[in-house]
Amino acid sequence: MKKILIINGPNLNLLGDREKNFYGNTSLQNIKSICADKCKKNNMEMEFFQSNHEGELIEKIHSVQSDFDGIIINPAAYTHTSIALLDALRATAKPKIEVHISNIYAREDYRRKSLTSEAVNGVICGFGEDSYLLAIEAMNKLIYNKKL
Ligand code: DQA
Q: From the CB of 131, is ligand 1 less than 6 Å away?
């Protein structure tokens, strides 16, 4: 069975408490559990990871090349600042999807530029926690070459 990594950047551990107007009431734990269900239905195993530390995120991305068949990443604020995350993503040839809970293009100017998106197959944003579920469907297509 194919295995994917779902990786979450800084402050996403606070989902459910943090800026609910942008991110809703759902906790990261809840997102993990709906992603696990969705992966099962899509014939994929999943590992779910969160860190507030750039270096830890980078090292986890490095593991994708040898240990996973694809990566779904919400780089959170590092989306807009981290060339190091961009380079780490570029270093893996596996399918890559960037997700955001909020629509980053409808927010502050500094959120409208995603550095990390230059390294991914596609970006899904603005659908709340469903952004992750849509990304899992898209990943299924990329990995198994299936129709949506
Ligand atoms: C986010 C959007 C980012 O701009 C922000 O820094 C986050 C969350 C999202 O999922 O909407 O922390 O990645």
A: no
Element at 132 (helix H, strand E):
helix 130-144
In total, the chain counts a number of residues equal to 148
Q: Kindly state if the Cβ of 104 falls inside 6 Å of ligand 1.
A: yes
For ligand 1, say whether the CB of 106 is within 6 Å of any of its atoms: no
Count of structural domains, the chain = 1
Q: Separation of 42 CA from ligand 1 center, angstroms?
A: 26
- Is residue 6, in this structure, part of any structural domain at all? yes
Q: What is the tens place of the pLDDT at every residue in 77-112?
A: 999 999 999 999 999 999 999 999 999 999 999 999
Cβ-based neighbours of 44, under 8 Å, separated by 6 or more: 1, 2, 3, 4, 69, 136, 139, 140, 143
- Structure confidence by residue, pLDDT tens digits, 49-72: 999 999 999 999 999 999 999 999
52 within domain boundaries: yes
